[in-house]
TrEMBL record:
GO terms for molecular function: acyltransferase activity, transferring groups other than amino-acyl groups. Residues 7-146 form the N-acetyltransferase domain. The lineage of its organism: Bacteria, Pseudomonadati, Bacteroidota, Bacteroidia, Bacteroidales. Its EC number is 2.3.1.-. It is an enzyme of class 2 (transferase). It comes from Candidatus Alistipes avicola. It holds the Pfam family Acetyltransf_10. It comes from the Bacteria. This is GNAT family N-acetyltransferase. Keywords: Acyltransferase, Transferase.
Length: 152
């Protein structure tokens, strides 16, 4: 069974912050070999969503208010432990993040910088490509938008 949690950065306990950053390091540094710093000033303004299974943090993302990364609110640092992928965790995280941002921030659109190999996955959630491919941290990405008006 999975438990989902949402808190602003300022409300995270030291243990929660450690769990979230450790997971991001496992996925981005160890697995994907990203060499740029993970922590940034956006962390301080973000709201975190994370998933636990039997006390272990297995997935996380951050929600960033509009005007910080893009004119739109955004979702970033989406990561799930390899052993927990293909179980619907990421889809649930994204859906809960979108619902939270609509309810709490009254957003009508959300931006993501998606790794190119995941484009069709994010399209299945309702995002659409709005940019050419670009490199971010040495990995190919495309900017994508989700618009409330486009959802059925």
């Amino acid at each position: 069974m999975f438990s989902f949690h949402i808190k602003p950065f300022s409300a995270l306990t030291v243990r929660e912050l450690h769990a979230v950053t450790s997971l991001r390091e496992q996925v981005f540094y160890l697995e994907q070999r990203v060499t740029t710093l993970d922590a940034d000033a956006k962390d301080l303004l973000s709201v975190y969503l994370w998933v636990e299974s039997e006390g272990e943090t297995v997935g996380t993302l951050r929600m960033i208010p509009r005007g910080v990364s893009y004119p739109e609110a955004s979702i970033g640092r989406v990561s799930v432990l390899p052993s927990f992928r293909h179980r619907g965790i990421c889809r649930q995280m994204m859906q809960r993040a979108i619902e939270y941002m609509e309810r709490e921030w009254n957003v009508e659109s959300i931006c993501i910088s998606a790794q190119s190999y995941l484009i069709s996955y994010y399209e299945s959630i309702g995002f659409h490509v709005v940019s050419d491919e670009y490199l971010e941290a040495g990995i190919r990405h495309r900017k994508m938008l989700w618009n409330a008006a486009d959802q059925g």
